[in-house]
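User: I want to check something. If I give you two sequences, will you return the structure for each one separately, not as a complex?

Assistant: Yes, each is folded on its own. Here is the first sequence with its structure:
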Amino acid sequence: MTRPAATAWTSRADVAQESLDHFFGVPGIQFLANSHPHDRGDTAVFNYWWLAHVIDARIDAWLRTGEARWLEAAVAARDNIVERNGGSLFNDYFDDMLWFALALERLHAATGDQRHLDDARAIWDHVVEHGWNETLGWSLAWRKQQLAYKNTPANGPLVILGARLHALDASGDQLDYARRAFNWLTANLVGPDGFVEDGVNRNDDGAVDTQWRFTYNQGLYAGAALELFRVTGDRSMLERAVQTAVTAVRELSDGSVFRDEGDGGDEGLFKGVYYRYLGEVLAVLVDEPDFADERALLEGFLRASTDALWRTGVVDGMLRPGNDWSEPAGEWIPYSTAVSAIFATEQRARLEAAGGRGEPVGAGSATASRSATGA
């Protein structure tokens, strides 16, 4: 028998998906308006990496429902990226391209269309050829114009994609790159408590950008560690993933919702990255009794934050969230915020469908997470 909570949250996930089109959908090549209302003068801006996450969001809906319309929507988002990018897979930002490649790998798994996997591999090769370098230690640059600037947004998805490509074909060197990038991240941008900084050497001064405390980076590192655990069985990777996921709740939330990370547009998608990989961590912890306390805390946070989202974000039966889920959205929102809300709602629906447990737990009372070093 389907649990009432599962039924309620799968319905909400449908509404979240449909709300993206309701508030942002536009005809023609634009595909999605960048903001709502549509009168801010930014309609024509091409947000390549936001669209890559739209592919992932639509695949989530297809996995939950099996409805062909969501897979068709994922393919449409993929085609829109390539069309608006002049027929090319590539741009100047290595993190952007890796997000697209990750979505393409999932699209291949969903459709069986070899073209999508070939494109993901082509992006991998392009990124490694043009961005991997020895400055500050072997790792990936953020963009082609700043090869000495290294950060989590570029190296995190490199680890995840490398691990996933290795899982499909172990004959290549993707896992080696993934391990080296992860080790570089850990040595340069991760603190003893698992908190992940954004980047280093942005101004060619060797400084770490400790002022940028983003959920995005925590989600990426947790996801990277988890993917390495999946392909290697190294339990220290699972410990790192859990530690960072818990630390993010402790450091960046009030125990119920994440604090507002800014209104520049890109920031709206940051927490969505965390929720995507939180869902993956929770899926693994179901079979890990040693992490029962951490699992309860993380499930509780997922429940508390999505409850807040749906308490404050509903407008005329549709979901229109702001960046701060503790209060209703302002007059203007970017569609990046809607994608984050989709990711979080899909993960809540996934949790309830699996009969997950966990009560809301304040960040201040969080059980101390295990040290990834065993200390």
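And separately, the second sequence with its own structure:
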Amino acid sequence: MIFLVLFLFNRLTQILRIIMNRLYPVFIKLKNKRCVVVGGGTVACRKVKSLLETEATVKVISLKLCHEMIVLIKDHQTEYHQRAFQPADLEGAFMVIAATDDAAANQHIWDEANKKNILANVVDVSELCNFYVPSVIRDGDLAIAISTNGKAPYVAKKLRVQLQQFINKIGLNRIISLVDRKKQEVRKAFPQNVKQREKRIKQFTDNLFENLSWR
């Protein structure tokens, strides 16, 4: 099982080197940043939920809402406008996600976002995106983002499941905690010696991985 995961990871990495050479992978802090989501279905609801977890300031625009979205907006007191999208909705926005089933509306949102140099993502339309939302593995302080440049999102999701099982098996979050604790100790022992700190942390991390049970 572990070897299959490693094989799939290596193969996907080779593919991503080709299709992602123009993207800059980055984790963005969205706290208090204005993010607009246009759409009220289950897909839009997932986007809103993820944004709220980052403490972003979310604005939802849709004529109709699914039940889960209604509950989410009520629970988080999220700004909601029951109408169609208007260009003015992007004033002060950092990003916009279009998750409607109306191709013309999605194109309009994309065009308006481009005019204002706002990050925009039209769900499932890779050519109408200047950023992609990756499939993410979260385990404590660990976060791994997987993307296929919008080409094959279900491949990313499949790999996420395989890697999550692998991470759980080796207890990677525990390793991160141990390394962080060691880092604090080394900082105190060598406050002025950066090279010595890096050397000690590398040795400690290498030893942890050498003692892992990979089978």
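Because they were folded independently, the notes below concern the second chain alone. The longest strand covers residues 34-38. Helices lie at 2-19, 42-53, 67-76, 103-115, 153-170, 172-189, 194-210.
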